[in-house]
Amino acid sequence: MSVLQKSLPVLLPLALAGALSLPAYGHEFNAGNAYGGVGLTFNTVGGGNATGFQLFGGYDLHVKINGDISTAVEVGYMDSGNFNTFGGGSFGGAEGIWAALVNSVEINRKMDAFTRIGIDLGDDDGVMVGAGMGYHFSPKSELRVEYVVRDHINGLQFNAVFHL
User: Fold this and answer.
1) What average pLDDT score do residues 90-117 get?
2) Is the CATH code 3.40.50.920 the one for domain 3-21+36-163?
3) Which residues are within 8 A (CB) of 138 and not within 5 positions of it... i.e. 6 or more apart?
4) Which of 53-57, 60-64, 143-147, 155-159 has the lowest average pLDDT?
5) 8 Å CB contact between 155 and 80
6) Is the pLDDT confidence value at 3 over 50?
7) Where are the domains of the chain?
8) Alpha-carbon torsion 105, 162, 150, 44, what sign?
9) 6 φ, ψ to 5°?
10) What's the mean pLDDT when you consider all of the chain?
């Protein structure tokens, strides 16, 4: 059974609960708040490194904390790639589904800084935290650079984000 198949019983109720909680924030679902992305990840774990990828989707809740911190929820899939050791050997990688709460603050019209906290439900089960910056090329496209720490794997990520 794949990681995706194992994770669906957990993720589907979480996604449904999140969608049903939108009215509690005074919001109805708005497709314009949705976005998707794809990224390249440079990962390290105990003496090895790997290049992997991720796919994700998110929804901007348009909830402002203190009037200037935006909140979004994201779910995604990460594949770390196979790790090569610094001595020339290699070992397998990790993959899995993740979910996170993302808070961001605008620095200027084109840039924002953000943090994330979430959970990884794959080969690297556990809490994940991260921080990064985003540059908005237009209202619909953004490039993010982020550092994410999981239970075992740390990764520098470059993500392209496309807003609907």
Assistant:
1) 92
2) no
3) none
4) 60-64
5) yes
6) no
7) 3-21+36-163
8) negative
9) -70, -35
10) 84
